Amino acid sequence: xxxxxxxxxxxxxxxxxxxxxxxxxxxxxxxxxxxxxxxxxxxxxxxxxxxxxxxxxxxxxxxxxxxxxxxxxxxxxxxxxxxxxxxxxxxxxxxxxxx
Amino acid sequence: xxxxxxxxxxxxxxxxxxxxxxxxxxxxxxxxxxxxxxxxxxxxxxxxxxxxxxxxxxxxxxxxxxxxxxxxxxxxxxxxxxxxxxxxxxxxxxxxxxxxxxxxxxxxxxxxxxxxxxxxxxxxxxxxxxxxxxxxxxxxxxxxxxxxxxxxxxxxxxxxxxxxxxxxxxxxxxxxxxxxxxxxxxxxxxxxxxxxxxxxxxxxxxxxxxxxxxxxxxxxxxxxxxxxxxxxxxxxxxxx
Lengths: 99, 240
Fold this sequence. Notes:
- The complex is a heterodimer of chains A (99) and B (240).
- Chain A has 99 residues and is mainly alpha-helical.
- Helices cover 76% and strands 4% of the residues of chain A.
- In chain A, strands 1-2 form a two-stranded antiparallel ribbon.
- In chain A, helix 4 packs antiparallel against helix 5.
- Chain A is extended and about 55 Å long.
- The two termini of chain A are 37 Å apart.
- Chain B starts with 9 loop residues before the first helix and ends in an 11-residue tail after the last helix.
- By secondary structure, chain B is mainly alpha-helical.
- Chain B is 67% helix and 0% strand.
- At the A-B interface, helix 1, helix 2, helix 3, strand 2 and helix 4 of A face helix 1, helix 2, helix 3, helix 4 and helix 5 of B.
- Chain B: The chain crosses the membrane at residues 21-44, 133-154, 196-221.
């Protein structure tokens, strides 16, 4: 693994993160745009959940992650603490893979 | 994230945010241990694994990068999906920019904390002050735990066994669902979430890793069209 690639990844990743805070700064944002930006993380999070639950290396694969997500959803609905939710998900997947 | 709709004293709210931020940090730290293990297994030195967690500090990108390398891919092949995954932080950065007011130096420093977890925690709050607190608390908590976990994992090497056997891979979707659920109260959010997931689902086999997630922002187009049409009108509400 080369240092060049790691530092290149670090640099570009940082530029992505900094573009909003540096360019926008304290400038006021119109209400409509603000509401739209409030929504921006929603499709990305939904896509992350889907991709990390039902795919492996670019192909569909349904395994213990799906029932684990179901357990997590149930616990979130029951307002369980965050740590309980994710540890229950890990325990569910680990147990299902054991049997 | 259990957040009640009842009005609560400010200090209680802050305490609840701090507790959630610590919880997110611990969860991320556990996953970082597996990153450290996998990074060393893929041929990285402990210093390289730490450089990634300190400087890149974007979990999905780091996993994508070492995943391709361990699969035999070169640096260029590993960089493409990692950078595409990192691009979503630009959207997050725009989303939280109004919360990060301050000197240029301060903004440059806080920008490193722009990640999934800090953005989602900020967006889940009801007031800008709580959102700023949630962003910083979660960002710092995750940064510390992510790097501590990476170090432990890299030093422990492959002694922990397969992260899949421990169910660690199931923790990420569960964590993202917990972060997403409070945001679904926003007008139009459920439809945007379903559309984003559908776009990603269709693209999984058709595009390289990372693209399905970034392409999901196309789900915002209907809401963006309404915002553009209603521009200039006072108190224009976004409807998806």
